[in-house]
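#data-curation
PF: Archiving a pair of folding outputs for the training set. Convention for this channel: one message per protein, sequence first, structure tokens after, nothing in between. First:
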Amino acid sequence: MTDNSEVIKILRSKPTLEGAGVSLKRVFGYYETPLFDPFLLLDHFGSDNPKDYMAGFPWHPHRGIETVTYMLSGEVEHGDSIGNRGIIGSGDVQWMTAGSGIIHQEMPKLYDGMMQGFQLWVNLPASHKMMEPRYRDVLSSTIPVVTLESGTKVKVISGVVNGEKGPVQDIVVDIEYLDVTVPESSEFEYLTNDGYTAFTYVFEGEGIVNNTEVSSNHLVLFEKGSEIKVTTQAKSIRFLLVSGEPVNEPIAWQGPIVMNTEEELQLAFKEYNSGIFIK
């Protein structure tokens, strides 16, 4: 495979506060949305200090999006307005489709060590913004890990690598979500789908991504349908590799609700304030 794709943008995650006072790193969000369609936001949370995360994310609404929570280490207890309850543990994934509306909370539990993970927001097309909400809790034990000839390990959350399918299927917007670890002095090559938005987010180590030196806490956004090549030297590198089919629709976004028009957005908040948000 030849390296003929171009890097569109490199971003460094920025410290921010969310929820009831959780310290995290915002990788991209509202202002970068046009570049990342169908993705809206990526947050990277991680700390060994409980004061940074124990306040959590108390009850709040969502409509018109999916949230994908991937825990590297630690536990988050969740509950929602339609009766779902559970714990997302180390290595687990929760794929929540808010659809027509859901009110939920996500509360980290005290953890002895580095509590770390990610939350990705995915836009829903107009045809599915008012679909019935659903949760999919995916245990780490069900997520395949593919070992390539180079020694690279790929955890396949959604998508297909070397014939191994991720457990998250039957999703609205076609998405690949991979956790990739390339050992030192190695190489990893991957071809994303033509026309798809694709990015890598490095959270451990360093390497060269399509001829660009990249270290931890940096995102690389590629041209659509990219050939991605990652090489390492003295250090290994671990990163998320995410790609998805653009929705290509107008966005009206305020807080936790993302619709297509301002009228739909204001209706959502009116319904929430009137107690008729849940369908």
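PF: Second:
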Amino acid sequence: MALILVAGLIAVGGVLLVRGYNQLLGRDNLLAPGARAGEHGAVVGPLNFLLIGSDYRAWSPEAGQRSDTIIVAHIPKSLDHVFLISVPRDLLVNMPPVPSLNFPGATTKINAAFEFGHGGSGGTQVLSQTLTGLVGVRFGGAAVVNFTGLQKAVDVLGGVDLCVDVQTVSQHTGRVFEPGCRLMKSAEVLDYLRQRQFPDGDFTRQRHQQQFLKAFFDRMLSRGVLTNPVRVNALLRAVAGSVTVDTGSTSPADLLFALRGLRPDDVSGVRIPSYVTMIDNLSYVLPSDEAGALFDAIRLDTLDQWASANKRWVNKI
């Protein structure tokens, strides 16, 4: 999910990535006007990015596309940490109208926003406007990656080292992932990250996706991918057509340079305080009373203090 923005943008060899950025990665206006942060001449924190993993399948386009993964990546003013805040796919939200897309608005699960906007830039605009209304923050950029892009990126790295923290049985292939650390190939990674049949439902899957992002970043650094022009080129060509990014008027080179010091240990995973409930025989996730403090912390750039005081909602990644 959002491999380039989370892993590529915070890696040492960012300048190499920039050289192929315009040619190989799709660029689009992904953010709704009301959800886009103000422009600055230089990279100034705090920064918020919207990261979306689409379940679009090139081999089955009639199945549509929903935001299978939604993450708000918050980088504080100090530019020395990344908080990955996973948004539950079943979160009940009010989606505002988007007249330019002929979308009248709706109150339903947040993962439907991407589909309502017909995926791509329209879907991301509906989703970004919805999250701005919910959390109260605007975004400096966004990225969308689909299943194909994720698998191809993992293939370039020769797999990713993941530590399974709880037995996971695939509802799609029957594969059983036993606890322990191992190198997973792309098909295994995708299978593992899609599973949400756990006692706490989707929350364990959110943690696994955050763990994957950190592990992917670590793998890129340990294998020297972003300091090797050949490997950078291979990664960019592999995900071409599967990743779309939007950094607004900010120069990718400036953004990469500002975040060059970040490392895997500087990445934290956060779960939105929430609970599952049934409404009209359908399962929804509702924000708990504690969620307001998290949203305040994102807006006020005090997530480090919030995380220290609310360890229950900080995932071990």
